[in-house]
Amino acid sequence: MSGLSARVRVARDRFTLDVAVEVAAGEVVAVLGPNGSGKSTLLDVLAGLLLPDHGRVTVDDRVLTDTATGVRLPPARRGVGLLAQDALLFPHLTALANVAFGPRATGARRGRADEVARHWLAEVGAAEFADRKPAALSGGQAQRVALARALAAEPGLLLLDEPFAALDVDATPVLRGVVRRVLAATGRTALLVTHDPLDALALADRVLVLTDGRVVEDGPTRAVLSRPRTAFTARVAGLNLVSGTGDPAGLRTPDGTLVAAAAGPPGEPAVAVFRPADVAVYTSPAQGSPRNVFAAVVAALEPHGDTVRVRAAATPGGPAWVTGLAADLTPAAVADLALEPGTPVHLSVKAAAVAVHPAGTAAAG
């Protein structure tokens, strides 16, 4: 089996999706990107809900869409399963009947379809809900049933569209664990659309980042999230990112400021990346060992686990690239410094804590 191969172009009004996506058999790929980047359009094309202007989609060497030859299999015949953020279960059917619907639709007799449905309900930990209707299920329970329904049809490709977004904080990690276990056990080829880096880290072998309808980053999950090359990915990963040009001493910003670090690619577009935890905040210029020191003002104070995330903004007339930089401080440090929105500060980060990488194609996005 060869997994998913898709090359599609969709032009709608002022937006164009133009991507090539390859997912190996048994691989899970997370698709990240800001709102309007083309994630939903891509899933609609793969699911057969949208015909691309140009393109070809194959799953396990089976052609699902080919605009050149006029092939367009309807959604029910594509062998593509979908788990969305809303379970979308049939309200008049029991959980068992919902899961059995897929096998029945492909010709299985009722007894065999029910047998398959009970197997998948057990696999996702929902066997006890077999006789309940959707109205009697919690959000997490309904998503388990929806996952079982998607898998019962034995799809060649599983599409996971923000599957945990509508769940509460207690149900999310439990269902994420269920999905991880089932994907590993079945070797299912899957595409996961998410905004949560935990979903990508827990479930995906690879991450693909879309911006303005184009792929701007693609690589192993931990590599992409630890070495982001676009502003969006840095925000998702919780990292600071400064765009500029590689310099033998680090990175040079558009206004000429040097961000000291290990040598960047000389003269090439590059990004400097560093953790909020590595940023110190002072209300007067920092003293001591050589550091990068940037003047800023406090834009916001945000609870962030056991710390407070200090968001920065540019000083009046200062460089705009400082806006959005973050530092993680203890609540005691915030109180000692008397920080509040509008407080002038100096952000300091050691050169050893800054990594410089070649920029993605949308580093400033």
From TrEMBL:
Residues 287-358 form the Mop domain. Keywords: ATP-binding, Molybdenum, Nucleotide-binding, Transport. One of its GO terms (biological process) is molybdate ion transport. Residues 1-237 form the ABC transporter domain. Pfam families: ABC_tran, TOBE. GO terms for molecular function: ATP binding; ATP hydrolysis activity. The keyword Transmembrane does not apply. PANTHER family: SPERMIDINE/PUTRESCINE IMPORT ATP-BINDING PROTEIN POTA (PTHR42781), SPERMIDINE_PUTRESCINE IMPORT ATP-BINDING PROTEIN POTA (PTHR42781:SF4). This is Molybdenum transport ATP-binding protein ModC.
